[in-house]
Design brief:
This protein has 265 residues and is mainly alpha-helical. The protein has twelve helices and two strands, in the order H-E-E-H-H-H-H-H-H-H-H-H-H-H.
Length: 265
């Protein structure tokens, strides 16, 4: 089933891409990328159709409460990203900047994403366990995993490369239902990869949020407390570093990371 889902996800996403790109261009939803070129933004929406199709397949073959909460979480996070793609204000950056603006009475799209995403992550966590400690752990894990790929999505292909690498161990260690859901999402990401790395379109927050939420939810559902704690610590460290330093500059200053980052562009 995972192999079938993967094949369907790749093919269907490839077929949808032209329609979504045309829709964004026709609607004037374009933005200047890091090279100064105006390209469609919000192409992460192309992931949503197969997420629904894959959820239908999973629901038919498995009786698991994970499926509806997975779909709810991924789509909700994507729609929060759409808000930022359409009307995002870049005057504030990082958690510190967004919440500093909020305390001064200004709601930025970044603060909205953080608050809304945290609430969605909390709801999903409640579906897995009623232990308060694990609920908090799962909430933080899902929320920070979602934002992690947002931090990475500043250069073509970067977020998708990291996502693909992260999916491999999660898929190996997960149950069949999780492999079906995450495998389908990985297939969609790989189908879109070439357009992203060649800077023809930007998936935007509507896409990077999907990447982070999909793997964050599966990790929260599948892994034990110690593994999730280790992942959360790693995510907190990355976010703490990103508040003070540029992730892009860190990568550019490391020969190996820079080579991997630029590979394929």
């Amino acid at each position: 089933m995972t192999i079938i889902s993967f094949i369907l996800g790749f093919i269907s996403t490839k077929l949808f891409m032209g329609f979504f790109k045309g829709m964004l261009v026709q609607s004037g939803i374009v933005r200047q990328n890091y090279m100064g070129t105006m390209i469609p933004v919000g192409m992460g929406l192309v992931f949503l159709p197969y997420i629904i199709v894959n959820a239908c397949i999973a629901t038919y073959f498995f009786d698991e409460k994970l499926v509806p909460y997975y779909v709810l979480g991924v789509i909700a996070m994507s729609l929060a990203g759409v808000v930022d793609d359409l009307v995002g204000d870049r005057s504030s950056s990082g958690f510190k900047g967004h919440f500093k603006a909020l305390f001064k009475g200004t709601l930025t799209t970044g603060a909205f994403k953080a608050l809304f995403g945290g609430a969605v992550a909390f709801l999903i966590s409640l579906s897995f366990t009623k232990d308060i400690g694990e609920i908090i752990l799962n909430t933080l894990l899902i929320a920070l995993a979602t934002n992690f790929f947002n931090l990475l999505d500043l250069r073509p292909g970067r977020a998708l490369k990291v996502y693909s690498a992260c999916c491999i161990p999660v898929l190996i260690l997960s149950s069949e239902i999780s492999r079906l859901l995450l495998g389908g999402m990985l297939a969609s990401a790989l189908a879109y990869f070439w357009d992203d790395i060649k800077a023809r379109t930007m998936m935007g927050d509507s896409g990077s949020n999907v990447l982070g939420a999909s793997i964050g939810i599966i990790a929260a559902y599948e892994f034990g407390m110690w593994t999730k704690t280790a992942l959360l610590i790693a995510l907190i460290l990355v976010h703490a570093v990103s508040e003070k330093y540029s992730i892009t500059k860190i990568i550019e200053n490391n020969r190996l990371l820079n080579y991997i980052d630029r590979l394929g562009r």
